[in-house]
Design a protein that fits this description.
The structure holds four protein chains of four kinds.
Chain B: H1 2-9, H2 13-31, H3 39-57, E1 62-64, E2 78-80, H4 82-104, H5 106-110, H6 115-134, H7 138-156, H8 163-194, H9 199-206, H10 213-230, H11 239-246, H12 249-275, E3 276-279, E4 285-287, H13 293-312, H14 318-338, H15 342-373, H16 384-387, H17 389-403, H18 409-423, H19 427-453, H20 467-485, H21 488-496
Antiparallel strand pairs in B: 1-2, 3-4
Chain C: H1 3-27, H2 34-59, E1 65-77, E2 81-91, H3 93-116, H4 123-142, H5 146-164, H6 171-202, H7 207-215, H8 224-241, H9 250-253, H10 259-268, H11 270-281, H12 287-308, H13 314-335, H14 338-365, H15 378-381, H16 383-397, H17 403-422, H18 426-450, H19 457-462, H20 468-479, H21 497-502, H22 528-533, H23 540-573, H24 579-585, H25 587-594, H26 599-643, H27 650-658, H28 661-673, H29 678-696
Antiparallel strand pairs in C: 1-2
Chain D: H1 6-23, H2 29-52, E1 68-81, E2 85-95, H3 99-116, H4 124-143, H5 147-156, H6 158-168, H7 173-199, E3 203-205, E4 211-213, H8 217-221, H9 241-255, H10 264-271, H11 274-299, H12 301-327, H13 332-352, H14 356-387, H15 398-401, H16 403-416, H17 423-436, H18 442-448, H19 450-467, H20 483-501, H21 504-530
Antiparallel strand pairs in D: 1-2, 3-4
Helix pairs in contact in D: 1-2, 1-4, 2-3, 2-4, 3-4, 3-11, 3-14, 3-20, 4-5, 4-6, 5-7, 6-7, 7-9, 7-10, 9-11, 10-13, 11-13, 11-14, 12-13, 12-18, 12-19, 12-21, 13-14, 13-17, 13-19, 14-16, 14-17, 14-20, 14-21, 16-19, 16-20, 17-20
The chains are: A mainly alpha, B mainly alpha, C mainly alpha, D mainly alpha.
Chain lengths: 103, 503, 699, 533
């Protein structure tokens, strides 16, 4: 029975992070892209808390995590609103088809 | 604890004022939803007050919000210092200019009933920027960055039903949140390395031997992604042209000046407080040998200005052209930082002041013209010199200043920049920058050529600006020309504001 | 007369024609009669110059009166010291005589022109030009330094240009003027370089100072070679002005100008300026320089004479004879026959001017017919013209009792002496052949023109003797071709006052090793004055050589001249020989002579077209290569912008005129990066992070 | 000396005129013209006053005390910088023998150009406003003694020129304008770099005994002022003086224009309106050579001496190349343009000689070329106004049609081909005298003399093609020049002839300064080589 240590958390978080980036880059649908974003943020959160716990850094990490969660919510809200608005004008939400502005 | 907070309050009056007026605007918006024509004036009043408060702060150097439980030394989460005040002042002035800008801009006038949100969001941005400028704690940095970004996402897409606008906002939001996500990840790693989020503490800790350099540089780079996206430094600039083109022109102007300024303030403070070990007699910064910021900055800045200029060569849409040109200018300013000296910092401060005047001016003229012609395409500028003599001359002066030719303030800004570079023996970089200036000349002159030398094929009525916008332009033009000839005042002012609250 | 008054008068003489020029240029339109004033002015000048000449020859013979002033003052020049450019005048016997000659002929030509040019649309303008020419020519005569010499040298070039192209409506005329000016410039460049060599070393242009320095053994750049070069280069100027081979080509064309002009400028005075220059700088000519000069003179004399044999245009014949005679003079200088060179200059001036004016009178009578094949039998119609013409012809052919005989005889003697002293026998041989040819072609001219039957009846019927204003000058000039004005002894000039009293050969200042032995009087240079009195020229052996050469030369030349005349009569008067057959037989030679040795054609094929071609090539180069490099991107950009569907007519060129090829491509590739797809951007970001990490990792 | 700041006055008078003009209503074009005329006229008067009070014995060049009409006060001063000491720029005006002729020339040419602008009818207001601005720029360049000030004036004249060509020009005006602009800007950027480099290499003692960096030309000429580690300091073992000199030289050479940077000139001239061509050829080209003499020579004496031969070489190329290309032109104006290239070559050659006679000749040639070429362009303009063509082969026989015109043309042409008794000859002669005196460049000088021949060739050929031969019936209605054109031609003609006969009138002004300059350069070069660097 192995002891779960800091590194495990870090591994998890980095996997999450990579998945998030991958999602953002590859998904067509805007909503999926936003989910990828969430993954990135949560990866960071895991880091904060893990570090705070194992490094005895006090509560700073946890506090940070809380802030991040809140911000993530706000961000998601705004992003979804924009996506909605986008759907009104383009009547689809496929990120890769929205490239009127370029060069 | 409490009295610490109460005492800190005294140092953040500007921020407080902004927040209060933000609330007031929201309330007014709710209460009088019949006519909202007062809102702009309210926000102006708020800004003026904020400006006065900031002016009072100039010269003060102090920490705010020093956490009790922090270590021996007392480092606050916010730092009030002349440097910050300068940028705050810059932001406030810019905001005032932008409010007037919006008053004249038809894009915004069209949506009367949403004026309240508009100004509220502007205030959101201002608050974000003010905090960001004086934030010396990673948490605060991230929060302010997000606050700024969130408001600007919405503003960029404020013209809901315009395709370009909503596309811009989507790109902006995705791009922005990814970069801030990366930055956050970087922050988390730094936190892991040092166990603190306070830049001063971090500074003292990373001087220790046991620090893992690779992780540190990785996290620093991730941090820079976040900041680089704010100041739209290549290769994190890709959102800029699209968003600038899509967003309402007033917002474009605002983004190109204010939030960029805040971003630069953040970058400078981050490097200065986070990574500088000491500042020598002649004002050169010595960095802690953990990460080669100078090389990074030089590389990035050269890439940025070159890319901005060369891409601008090919733009037919003036807004987009200005977007690229603002990227190029970000490159120049970045050079000023890369010198890592107070002289370079002076150059940056001067440059920003001048840049504010000329960039807003250029956008303003573009806006006035697109109000009339409904287009920002360069071909619609044919024969403008004859049709709108004053606008033509004004735009000409702004563009000349952007190029950096005497007798405009733009020249002075560049001159100081190059002085700093030469003094730091970065001759090669200076020459590259100069060649870039020549390149930039082409697309600026190209506009002049269209305005004065080409006859427009289709006849259109003369464009005569209203008294208001005439005054507005004069307010921008006079300093540009005056400081172009006699620039001691701004230089002195900038010099008095270089000092950061160091270690 | 006091020295200063002589100087002053000569300066007045110099300025008078200028006055007439200015008057005519500015007021000629208003007062069409002003040309009379001009003529009057020149005659005043003539009188004054007679006074000066008289004064010089009587009271200051052999001396040099000079007057100079500072023109440009450079102040205290580093590494040189105080430097200033002095100008000035000097009068000595030669100068005085030259003054007289120029003024006399100028005055006569003015007089003559009144009738000859009557009715021309630019009548007064013509006299103005004569004025400016006289002014410049006098300037050449009385200057005491090389710079002024060069200045007036160019000015006579200008006036000759204006007068040759006087009837510029004719392309041939304006061409001729241009040709004259350019060909002269070629010579002048050489002359200028020569002057520069001297100035660079001596920091002065003044003759006397330079001569003095050289005589003290201070050679330019301390090498005799440099001195030789300077001499030859300055001589190049003379080659141009005096139409020496190979720059003689302009003179025949110059006959496009009005005939009196040809008489004044292209026979009597200006073309003689070259010889005058040589006379001025004679003392600094080294042996090599003299040899070169002699050879050039000889070749010129010969070539021109051969050409003159076959020409049919009356003025062309005279032109070539002029060239040939000038050749004689140069040859004389070359062989050291200083006095005879100048002597011939003077005599030639008179009889050649007379010939030209005579031909002018004929042309005038024949309504501007110049081809002698349409003339004939004019003797009866215009007797005065004929006899004056005949006298001058006798003079030029070197028949005794006439001036030409004396001077030419002297020159031939000189060549003989030279040959005997240095072994260059070719020169005398050339000299004598030319003498024969001269006699032949001159009489050919006279016979075809005046004797025999008129070949063009109606022209002949209209012909008539000219008015007195035209014939009087002829009379005067032909009179001056009689020996008595120069010497009491019709067969030897040595006895004459001209050579004895007036002209004295100066002692060369060239160091012994650089000059011919015979130029070195055995004695110390400072006693040269002595040498003159005892009638010794250069040195004893030269004088002796001349003495021995005198009689052989005389007889030989007499025989040859007689021979030439005889042949001329056989051919053209008595028609004993069928010329058609003869020309058939000698066709190639005949053609060669008739076409002037194809020299013009040669120049056209080489220099002129060469210059034009290279000019065209260069301008092509300028437009397509140099500017092309600048514009290179113009084309590329158009191509690039078509690719990107973006086209702008000029600003693109303007814009990319400067930015080279890559700027276009870079800009484009940067644009390509901006795909508009947000996810691509993010990929770039991630990629950028990795790259940065790669570059800025701490290990 | 004079009580009032005459140099400031003479420099900024046109700006005053410009402001007045800008205040005027558009439609009062005739008054606008008179205002401009008045402004330039006053300038000429002031120039004459200058000449009247000019001290011929004062050397100038490097001694501040022997400059004349000096005006000096602190323009920009930033004290207390941590390491920069005091940053200062002076407003420093003054003239010596180098600038005096140029000031006279500028005043004269501007005045005459104003007269010849009389028949400009397209947006008169803008034209004359820009014109006067240009005038100030030019005058300023010649009187400024502070590098920074010099550069400001240098740039100041760039934009008006761009618009004057670009708006009032011929068919391909945009192309010509942008080409001129880009070229010149490229050059001035080099100048800027060197300027800044110099600034940080030398210091000057100011009131209070403090040593501060300086743009003061005179201070920069004094090697004692250079710090050992300055990048452009002669005492710095690895200094960049050579590169800096080349950069500076290129910056100026573009203006001259020196082969191979000359291709903007023909385009600019052909497209520019007559008065602007006059200004361009009459004054602007001189700025290049003036800059070299005023800045490059005394500040970099060592490099100057080392590069003498190359300068002479380019001078020779300019002379021959320009003349040959001119020979091939079919367009009157282009021909004159290339003749300018050729004539400026003489200036280069004379400067390269580093001898008093040569440099006297060079400066004198600058002045003479100014007057002569100005006249030539006026001549082209007169013909073009009447016939609306510039093709050399379209004409013929005009001499009978327009005798007075032909008279002036003849004077100008013969002056251009260096006929003695006209001013052009003296300067060319002095240039040759000076250059020939120098062993190392003697051969180049001799080759250059072909220029005299080629010059005569294209000039006479042009004269023949336009004025001689049968009158082309197409031009039977051409009228001879009118009063206004007389007014333009006469002063120039008088000057050309007067200076041809009495050159001392101009040479005395400059000779003292030239001697000072030559001595200074030679000594400076020696000192540096002695100090082993």
């Amino acid at each position: 029975m192995i002891e779960v240590g800091l590194n495990h958390y870090l591994v998890v978080s980095s996997i999450l992070f990579s998945l998030g980036v991958y999602g953002v880059v590859t998904r067509k649908n805007a909503v999926m892209v936003l989910m990828g974003l969430e993954l990135i943020l949560n990866a960071a959160n895991i880091n904060f808390i893990a570090f705070a716990k194992y490094g005895n850094f006090g509560l700073g990490g946890q506090a940070m995590a809380l802030f991040v969660i809140i911000l993530a919510a706000a961000e998601a809200a705004i992003a979804l609103a924009i996506v909605l608005n986008l759907y009104k004008t383009f009547s689809n939400v496929n990120v890769d088809e929205i490239d009127k502005l370029k060069e | 604890m409490i009295n610490e907070i109460l005492n800190s309050i005294t140092f953040i009056y500007p921020e407080l004022a902004v927040s209060i007026f933000l609330l007031i605007i929201v309330l007014v918006d709710l209460v009088f939803h019949k006519d909202k024509k007062y809102i702009p004036y309210i926000s102006l009043a708020g800004l003026v007050i904020t400006g006065i408060l900031v002016l009072n702060q100039i010269g003060i150097t102090h920490f705010a919000f020093v956490p009790q439980l922090s270590a021996v030394k007392k480092y606050g989460m916010m730092t009030i210092d002349p440097f910050g005040s300068y940028f705050k002042l810059l932001v406030v002035v810019t905001s005032i200019l932008i409010i007037f800008f919006t008053i004249a801009s038809e894009e915004v006038i069209d949506l009367k009933e949403r004026l309240g949100e508009f100004h509220a969001l502007i205030y959101g941005m201002i608050l974000g920027m003010l905090v960001m400028i004086s934030a010396s704690d990673l948490i605060l940095i991230y929060l302010s960055l997000e606050l700024l970004s969130l408001s600007s996402y919405v503003l960029a897409g404020f013209l809901k039903l315009r395709e370009r606008s909503s596309e811009a906002s989507l790109k902006y939001v995705i791009y922005g949140s990814v970069s801030s996500g990366l930055m956050l990840f970087g922050i988390s790693i730094i936190y892991g390395l040092t166990g603190s989020t306070n830049l001063y503490v971090i500074n003292s800790l990373i001087q220790g031997p046991q620090i893992n350099l690779f992780t540190l540089s990785f996290s620093s780079i991730l941090m820079f992604v976040g900041i680089g996206y704010k100041i739209s430094a290549a290769p994190f600039h890709f959102w800029t042209p699209d968003v600038y083109e899509g967003a309402p022109i007033s917002i474009t102007a605002y983004l190109s000046v204010a939030s960029k300024a805040a971003g630069f303030a953040l970058l400078i403070r981050f490097i200065q407080t986070g990574f500088t070990s000491f500042i020598s007699e002649d004002g050169y910064w010595t960095l802690i040998a953990v990460f080669d910021w100078q090389a990074l900055l030089i590389a990035i800045s050269i890439l940025t200005m070159t890319l901005g200029n060369f891409s601008a060569l090919w733009q037919d849409n003036l807004k987009r052209m200005l977007a690229y040109s603002s990227i190029a200018h970000a490159g120049y300013i970045l050079l000023g930082i890369a010198v890592l000296s107070n002289q370079g910092l002076i150059a940056v401060l001067i440059y920003f002041f001048v840049y504010m005047l000329m960039n807003i001016g250029a956008f303003y003229v573009v806006m006035l013209i697109s109000n009339k012609t409904g287009s920002e395409n360069i071909d619609d500028y044919d024969g403008l010199g004859a049709k709108a003599p004053f606008l033509g001359v004004a735009l000409a002066i702004f563009l000349i200043s952007l190029t950096g030719l005497p007798p405009t303030a733009g020249f002075i800004a560049k001159l100081y920049l190059f002085i700093a570079l030469i003094d730091a023996n970065m001759i090669v970089v200076a020459i590259i920058a100069l060649l870039n200036t020549v390149v930039s000349l082409y697309y600026y002159v190209r506009v002049l050529k269209h305005m004065y030398l080409t006859k427009s094929e289709r006849e259109q009525e003369n464009i005569t600006p209203s008294i208001g916008s005439l005054v507005y332009l004069l307010v921008l033009l006079i300093p540009i020309l005056f400081f172009g000839i006699y620039f001691t005042p701004i230089v002195e002012f900038a010099r008095s504001c270089v000092s950061l609250l160091g270690i | 007369m006091s020295e200063i008054s002589i100087i002053n008068i000569s300066i007045i003489i110099l300025l008078l024609p200028l006055v007439s020029f200015v008057l005519l240029i500015f007021f000629g339109k208003k007062f069409p009669k002003l040309y009379l004033a001009a003529t009057g002015v020149v005659f005043v000048a003539l009188v004054l110059s007679i006074a000066v000449t008289f004064g010089m020859l009587t009271s200051y013979s052999g001396e040099t009166l000079s007057f100079s002033f500072t023109w440009i003052d450079f102040g205290n020049v580093p590494s040189i010291g105080f430097l200033s450019i002095e100008l000035g005048f000097e009068i000595n016997n030669v100068t005085a005589l030259m003054l007289f000659v120029v003024n006399l002929i100028s005055a006569l030509v003015h007089l003559y022109s009144i009738e000859y040019m009557r009715g021309d649309i630019r009548y007064t303008r013509y006299f103005a030009y004569l004025g400016i020419f006289t002014f410049s020519m006098l300037g050449i005569v009385i200057t005491n330094n090389l710079l002024m010499m060069y200045i007036f040298w160019e000015l006579v070039g200008l006036s000759s240009y204006l007068l040759i192209g006087f009837w510029f409506e004719k392309d041939s005329a304006s061409d001729a003027g241009k040709k004259a000016f350019l060909v002269n410039r070629v010579g002048d460049i050489g002359m200028w370089i020569g002057i520069l060599i001297l100035f660079t070393h001596y920091k002065t242009f003044t003759f006397s100072t330079i001569f003095e320095q050289i005589s003290l053994g201070n050679l330019p750049f301390d090498s005799a070679a440099a001195l030789t070069t300077a001499g030859i280069l300055i001589f190049l100027g003379a080659v141009g002005k005096s139409a020496q081979f190979p720059l003689h080509v302009w003179l025949p064309d110059a006959m496009e100008g009005p005939t009196p002009v040809s008489a004044l400028i292209h026979a009597a005075t200006m073309v003689a300026a070259g010889v005058y220059l040589l006379v001025k700088i004679f003392v600094i000519l080294t042996a090599d320089a003299m040899l070169v000069i002699a050879v050039v003179g000889g070749v010129t004399a010969f070539v021109a004479a051969t050409i003159a044999l076959t020409q049919n245009d009356i003025k062309k014949v005279l032109a070539y004879s002029t060239v040939s005679q000038l050749g004689y003079m140069v040859l004389a200088v070359g062989v050291g026959a200083y006095a005879f060179a100048f002597f011939h200059l003077v005599t030639h001036a008179f009889f050649k001017a007379c010939l030209f004016l005579g031909s002018g009178s004929v042309i005038h009578a024949m309504h501007h017919e110049q081809d002698i094949r349409y003339m004939g039998g004019l003797r009866k119609k215009m007797p005065l013209t004929y006899y004056t013409f005949l006298i001058s012809t006798l003079a030029i052919s070197g028949v005794p009792l006439f001036s030409g005989f004396l001077s030419k005889d002297g020159i031939l003697a000189g060549t003989l002496a030279f040959g005997s002293l240095t072994g260059h026998w070719l020169l005398p041989i050339i000299g004598f052949t030319v003498a024969a040819m001269t006699a032949f072609y001159m009489f050919r001219l006279v016979i075809i023109t005046f004797h025999g039957e008129p070949r063009n009846k109606e022209k002949y019927d209209h012909a008539h003797e000219s008015k007195w204003v035209m014939t009087a000058p002829l009379a005067v000039l032909s009179l001056l071709s009689i020996f008595i004005f120069y010497t009491p002894n019709p067969i030897s000039a040595d006895a004459g006052w001209f050579l004895n009293k007036w002209i004295s050969t100066p002692q060369t200042v060239v160091p012994a090793e650089a000059s011919f032995d015979f130029m070195q009087s055995g004695m110390n240079k400072h006693e040269t004055g002595l040498a003159q009195e005892s009638g010794i020229v250069h040195s004893v052996q030269y004088t002796e050589a001349m003495h021995h050469a005198h009689y052989p030369a005389m007889f030989l030349s007499l025989i040859l001249a007689g021979l030439g005349i005889l042949i001329a009569f056989i051919f053209y008067q008595w028609k004993k020989v069928d010329l058609e057959k003869l020309t058939e037989k000698l066709n190639s030679l005949y053609k060669f002579s008739l076409n002037k040795w194809y020299i013009d054609e040669f120049y056209h094929a080489t220099f002129i077209s060469g210059t034009i071609r290279s000019a065209d090539a260069l301008s092509w180069f300028d437009y397509y290569i140099i500017d092309g490099i600048v514009n290179a991107s113009a084309s590329i950009t158009r191509f690039v912008s078509r690719l990107s569907g973006w086209f702008d007519t000029f600003i693109v060129d303007g814009l990319v005129n400067f930015s080279a090829l890559f700027s276009g491509f870079i800009g484009l590739s940067f644009r390509r990066l901006q795909t508009g797809k947000v996810q691509t951007y993010i990929v770039f970001v991630v990629f950028a992070v990795l790259v940065l990490l790669l570059f800025f990792r701490p290990f | 000396m004079i009580g009032f700041p005459i140099l400031t006055l003479i420099t900024f008078l046109p700006i005053v005129g410009m402001i007045i003009i800008l205040a005027m209503p558009k439609d009062k074009s005739i008054w606008i013209k008179y205002t401009a005329l008045a402004a330039t006229g006053f300038q000429v008067m002031l120039a004459v006053i200058l000449l009247g009070n000019y001290d011929y014995s004062a050397g100038g060049i490097f001694q501040a005390e022997s400059f004349q009409f000096i005006e000096k006060f602190r323009w920009i001063e930033i004290t207390g910088l941590s390491w920069l000491g005091t940053l200062k720029v002076d407003y420093f005006l003054g003239i010596d023998g180098l600038s005096m002729p140029m000031v006279l020339l500028t005043a004269l040419i501007s005045f005459i150009a104003t007269i010849s602008s009389w028949n400009i009818n397209k947006s008169v207001k803008g034209y004359f406003a820009l014109f006067l601005l240009l005038d100030t720029g030019m005058m300023g360049v010649f009187v400024a003694l502070d590098l920074f000030l010099f550069y400001v004036f240098w740039e100041l004249m760039l934009l008006p020129m761009y618009f004057l060509i670009g708006i009032w020009g011929g068919p391909r005006k945009e192309y010509a304008a942008i080409k001129f602009f880009i070229y010149t800007l490229f050059g001035s950027i080099f100048i800027l770099i060197v300027m800044i480099g110099l600034y940080f290499s030398a210091t000057e003692v100011i009131a209070g005994g403090e040593r501060v960096f300086t743009f003061n030309m005179l201070a920069l000429m004094d090697q004692a002022n250079y710090s050992v580690d300055g990048i452009l300091s002669p005492f710095n073992p690895h200094n960049l003086r050579f590169i800096a000199y080349i950069a500076l030289f290129v910056g100026f050479a573009i203006k001259i224009p020196m082969f191979p940077f000359h291709t903007w000139l023909p385009d600019a001239h052909v497209e520019a309106p007559t008065p602007i061509s006059v200004i361009l050829a009459g004054v602007l080209l001189k700025m290049g050579t003036y800059g070299i003499l005023r800045i490059s020579y005394p500040i970099f004496p060592d490099i100057t001496r080392d590069l003498m031969w190359y300068i002479a070489l380019f001078g020779m190329i300019n002379i021959i190349y320009g003349a040959l290309v001119a020979l091939a032109q079919k367009d009157f104006k282009k021909l004159i343009a290339y003749s300018s290239v050729s004539h400026m070559g003489y200036v280069l050659l004379g400067m390269a000689s580093l001898s008093s006679t040569g440099i006297n000749g060079a400066i004198f040639q600058m002045f003479n070329h100014g007057t002569i070429t100005a006249m030539l362009f006026l001549i082209v303009g007169v013909l073009y106004d009447r016939s609306h063509t510039r093709g050399l082969n379209d004409f013929g026989g005009l001499a009978t049609q327009m005798p007075a015109y032909t008279g002036f043309v003849t004077v100008a042409f013969f002056a251009a081909l260096g006929l003695p008794s006209l001013s052009g000859f003296i300067s060319e002669a002095l240039v040759f005298v000076g250059a020939f005196g120098v062993e190392s460049i003697r051969v180049l000088t001799i080759i250059s003399m072909l220029g005299i021949l080629l010059g005569a060739a294209y000039i006479l050929w042009t004269l023949q093609r336009i004025f001689f031969g049968k009158l082309n019936e197409k031009w039977a209605q051409l009228t001879d020049i009118d009063a206004r054109e007389y007014i333009m031609f006469i002063p120039l003609t008088v000057i050309i002839i007067f200076l041809g006969i009495y050159p001392s009138a101009m040479l005395d002004i400059m000779s003292t300064s030239v001697n000072t300059l030559v001595e200074f350069v030679i000594n400076g070069a020696n000192n540096i080589s002695i100090s082993g660097l």
